[in-house]
Write a structure and sequence with these properties.
The structure is a single chain. The protein is of the alpha/beta class. It is built from 12 helices and 19 strands. Helices cover 30% and strands 22% of the residues. Bound molecules: pyridoxal-5'-phosphate.
């Protein structure tokens, strides 16, 4: 069973102050989870999480994570600027981009970020862009083929298709990139790879770690480069469905430690720092999209219209993703009504749920859409002239803070030429 991190009484107070729809974040949950992650990798002295800013690009969130010892993983100029304005700089920023414009490399360099090269052609392009090669540099690896996990918990398959992904360098290219970067002045090298997304398996990181640790040993022998960090990137998932098992970050950290002991330590590479770049795992469960039932419609199916739409949360429309829904105050009622929960876009995929069994919904009911803290607000858009919602932080003391105001029509009109 999934329970919201706010009670109905708490939410009634919040909606009296801020109109629905909005995204609500749970500071306590965010902090506790970040501490669990840190503890799981505390065996590695150089360990650092670089929060994937794209998941939740909101300064108040970045600051909470910064207080918990996290850096930022940026992928664009705007994200770099935001990190800079949050006083995050130097090696607390990873810059993992692709199709990168020169000005983005220039800003990343100015901030002192660790630059992660997505392609072999970027070796020369980076040098042309910033006039030199930084001493500490990272290359993104793509092993190709299909990635599967041998041991998955029943029913939850992990499979992804790196061979079809636009990211990273081939095995031959990463060796060539290292050799050339070393000749151009690089001294400290890192490896980065992202092989599967939203994995519900304690085996994903350990399996990825084994691949990257072995690659590091081989690259060290082939190129003589000093590999000082390995970035396991993102990909640890969360159970969007109530029946899915949760990942156990302590078990994951221990699995990675075993791989480290077995592969890196015997190769004399026990100075390698591990980095992660998690987005979803850090934030998704600690965000709710709060919306109100505003309309009902009885045609060939039963519809409940809500005041949020796919512009506030794109994942169901884009990927058919499941997001659990709680009808506030009706948690104990039986789910004996079958509904499509729809937004107001002129687009039939604008449904938060299809054929979902829920308690009887009345107009005015508050609905919590779960697990929207990552890749939720951030994937928002303005189709049909819909405006972006506010973001609100539920603080540890139970008070709330507006951390992004809702967009207004004036904001939307600002860029137009009349
Ligand atoms: C999206 C992304 C992440 C975060 O992915 P999650 O699935 O949210 O953990 C990390 N690194 C890179 C390079 C990404 O593109």
């Amino acid at each position: 069973m999934k329970t919201p991190f706010v009670t109905k009484a708490q939410l009634e107070k919040i909606v009296a102050q801020y109109p629905t729809p909005f995204h609500l974040y749970d500071e306590k949950g965010i902090r506790e989870n970040a501490r669990r992650l840190k503890a799981a990798f505390s065996w590695n002295p150089g360990y650092r999480e670089y929060f994937a800013v794209k998941a939740t690009p909101t300064p108040a969130i970045l600051k909470i994570l910064q207080e918990e010892g996290c850096g930022c993983d940026c992928s664009s100029l705007t994200e770099l600027l935001m990190a800079g304005r949050c006083n995050i700089s130097g090696e607390n920023i990873m810059f993992s981009s692709n199709n990168t414009p020169a000005e983005e490399f220039q800003l990343a360099d100015k901030l002192g970020a660790i630059i992660n090269l997505d392609d072999l052609t970027l070796v020369d392009f980076l040098e042309q862009s910033i006039g030199r090669i930084p001493e500490k540099i990272c290359c993104r690896y793509n092993p190709g083929g299909v990635f599967t996990l041998g041991e998955t918990r029943e029913g939850f398959q992990v499979m992804d298709n790196p061979g079809d992904a636009k990211y990273g360098m081939t095995r031959a290219q990463i060796a060539e990139a290292y050799t050339r970067l070393a000749a151009m002045g690089a001294k400290e090298f890192g490896i980065h790879a992202f092989l599967a997304s939203n994995t519900i398996s304690n085996e994903y990181y350990p399996t990825l770690a084994r691949i990257l640790f072995q690659l590091a040993v081989d690259l060290k022998h082939e190129t003589g480069c000093h590999i000082t960090f390995i970035n396991l990137s993102g990909g640890i998932g969360i159970p969007y469905r109530p029946e899915q098992p949760d990942n156990d970050i302590a078990i994951i950290g221990e699995g990675v430690r075993k791989a480290y002991e077995e592969i890196l330590v015997p190769a004399g590479m026990d100075d390698v720092s591990l980095y992660t770049e998690l987005g979803r795992f850090m934030l998704a469960p600690y965000g709710h999209l709060v919306t109100r039932a505003t309309h009902e419609k009885h045609i060939y199916k039963e519809y409940i219209g809500v005041d949020a739409c796919a512009c506030n949360l794109m994942r169901p429309a884009m990927y058919g993703a499941y997001h659990h829904i709680t009808v506030m105050g009706k948690e104990d009622q039986s789910c004996d009504h079958k509904y499509d929960i729809a937004g107001g876009l002129c687009e039939n995929n604008d449904k938060f749920a299809v054929d979902r069994m829920l308690p009887k919904i009345d107009i005015g009911d508050l609905l919590v859409i779960h697990d929207t803290g990552a890749h939720g607000f951030s994937m928002g858009y303005n189709y049909n002239g819909k405006l972006r919602s506010a973001e609100i932080l539920l603080k540890e003391d139970g008070s709330t803070e507006l951390i992004r105001r809702a967009e207004t029509v004036e904001d939307y009109f600002q860029t137009l030429v009349w």
